[in-house]
């Protein structure tokens, strides 16, 4: 059997380290131990490494390989946190079967991180081959609120193109959706259910809200469309109301996830939905309290940008699909592109279908191919004789 690619050994190490995002409960250990691992590996490779504090006990790891070309710097970015271990069998024990490697984070997104570490080490070994500076940011909190990448965008480290590692099945992703998540609450008046006329039923109020959401908000979305990511969507995802069976409910709340497409602004979308609700409900006496949960940007990177053109060259050189794709899920890339002005793509091993699932795995070959792809990106990014 061929010798195992070193990126796979790295991925095994990463899977063994529990790094569940602290949002997912008390057993979650957060990113600290993976950060130690990444820092150690990068120091061993001779890279300049520092930690960027993001929130209490949580830090991005930033490794820099400087070859004197700061005006032409490529960023590799991958998050260190995972979703909860859930009902996955042996989530922290890397297991090979059928040319797959199983484990929590295998595809989302430790496979990408392992392949990026491989690329950083290769580049550090042979810096003469680089046409750009290369930076790795292993970030925290992608699975919750993107705090890690937001901190990086606000740092003084300037990059001119970025590759964000997420499971794209080795496809080049230049567009994805963002979201506007919010909570709506109706307030009524509690009363004993034997005298309901003395109360005001918050659940019935919410029924009016839901009718408007379905009839006036959701139905209008099909008219909008984007060539790579399709139309926007909206889902009323949770509902909670009432306290017990003999009390007229005083409160009812829903949580809504509206996915926005490139060209839409999450805040404007949210404001627009609230306008529709207020207008349709104005004669019903129903009022809603609004709480924003998360506003996130869509990704919309120009196909003409240097990072995209280079990605297509490298992909076709490796015999991979070099067409451009859009996906429905969000990633750190949109923050880099929309807030940092950094043209960004998403590229990584594995499929989003296995992310967050109880059967998370990544095709072994994907990890190796992604590692080669990242090396190719670093070695030719911004080279003026590209394609010559
Ligand atoms: Zn991810």
TrEMBL record:
<dbReference type="InterPro" id="IPR001261">
    <property type="entry name" value="ArgE/DapE_CS"/>
</dbReference>
<dbReference type="InterPro" id="IPR050072">
    <property type="entry name" value="Peptidase_M20A"/>
</dbReference>
<dbReference type="Pfam" id="PF01546">
    <property type="entry name" value="Peptidase_M20"/>
</dbReference>
<dbReference type="GO" id="GO:0009089">
    <property type="term" value="P:lysine biosynthetic process via diaminopimelate"/>
</dbReference>
<comment type="similarity">
    <text>Belongs to the peptidase M20A family.</text>
</comment>
<dbReference type="InterPro" id="IPR011650">
    <property type="entry name" value="Peptidase_M20_dimer"/>
</dbReference>
<dbReference type="InterPro" id="IPR036264">
    <property type="entry name" value="Bact_exopeptidase_dim_dom"/>
</dbReference>
<feature type="domain" description="Peptidase M20 dimerisation">
    <location>
        <begin position="174"/>
        <end position="281"/>
    </location>
</feature>
<protein>
    <recommendedName>
        <fullName>Probable succinyl-diaminopimelate desuccinylase</fullName>
        <ecNumber>3.5.1.18</ecNumber>
    </recommendedName>
</protein>
<keyword id="KW-0479">Metal-binding</keyword>
<dbReference type="InterPro" id="IPR002933">
    <property type="entry name" value="Peptidase_M20"/>
</dbReference>
<dbReference type="InterPro" id="IPR010182">
    <property type="entry name" value="ArgE/DapE"/>
</dbReference>
<keyword id="KW-0170">Cobalt</keyword>
<keyword id="KW-0378">Hydrolase</keyword>
<dbReference type="GO" id="GO:0046872">
    <property type="term" value="F:metal ion binding"/>
</dbReference>
<keyword id="KW-0028">Amino-acid biosynthesis</keyword>
<dbReference type="GO" id="GO:0009014">
    <property type="term" value="F:succinyl-diaminopimelate desuccinylase activity"/>
</dbReference>
<dbReference type="Pfam" id="PF07687">
    <property type="entry name" value="M20_dimer"/>
</dbReference>
<comment type="pathway">
    <text>Amino-acid biosynthesis; L-lysine biosynthesis via DAP pathway; LL-2,6-diaminopimelate from (S)-tetrahydrodipicolinate (succinylase route): step 3/3.</text>
</comment>
<keyword id="KW-0862">Zinc</keyword>
């Amino acid at each position: 059997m061929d010798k195992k690619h070193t990126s796979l050994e790295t991925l095994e190490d990463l899977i063994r380290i529990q790094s569940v995002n602290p949002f997912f409960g008390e057993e979650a250990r957060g990113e600290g131990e993976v950060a130690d691992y990444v820092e150690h590996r990068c120091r061993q490779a001779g890279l300049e490494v520092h930690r960027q504090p993001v929130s209490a006990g949580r830090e991005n790891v930033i490794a820099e390989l400087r070859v004197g070309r700061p005006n032409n710097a490529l960023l590799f970015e991958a998050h260190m946190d995972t979703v909860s271990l859930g009902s996955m069998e042996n989530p922290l024990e890397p297991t090979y079967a059928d040319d797959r490697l199983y484990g929590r984070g295998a595809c989302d997104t430790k496979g990408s991180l392992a392949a990026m570490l491989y690329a950083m080490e290769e580049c550090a070994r042979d810096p003469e081959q680089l046409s750009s500076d290369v930076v790795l940011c292993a970030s925290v909190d992608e699975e919750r609120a993107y705090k890690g990448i937001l901190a990086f965008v606000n740092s003084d480290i300037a990059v001119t193109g970025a590759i964000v590692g997420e499971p794209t099945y080795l496809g080049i992703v230049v567009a994805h959706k963002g979201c506007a998540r919010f909570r709506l609450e109706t307030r009524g008046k509690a009363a004993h259910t034997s005298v309901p006329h003395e109360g005001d039923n918050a659940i019935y109020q919410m029924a009016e809200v839901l009718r408007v959401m379905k009839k006036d908000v959701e139905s209008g979305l099909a008219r909008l469309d984007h060539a790579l990511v399709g139309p926007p969507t909206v889902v009323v995802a949770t509902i909670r109301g009432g306290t017990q069976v003999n009390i007229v409910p005083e409160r009812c709340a829903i949580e809504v996830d509206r996915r926005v497409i490139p060209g839409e602004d999450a805040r404007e979308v949210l404001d627009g939905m609230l306008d529709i609700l207020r207008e349709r409900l104005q004669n019903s006496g129903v009022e809603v309290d609004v709480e924003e949960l998360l506003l996130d940007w869509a990704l919309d990177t120009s196909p003409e940008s240097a990072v995209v053109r280079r990605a297509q060259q490298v992909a076709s050189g490796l015999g991979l699909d070099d067409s451009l794709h859009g996906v429905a899920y969000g990633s750190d890339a949109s923050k880099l592109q929309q807030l940092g002005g950094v043209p960004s793509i998403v590229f990584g091993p594995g499929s989003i279908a296995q992310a967050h699932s109880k059967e998370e795995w990544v095709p072994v070959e994907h990890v190796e191919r992604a590692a080669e792809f990242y090396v190719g990106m670093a070695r030719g990014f911004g080279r003026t004789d590209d394609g010559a």
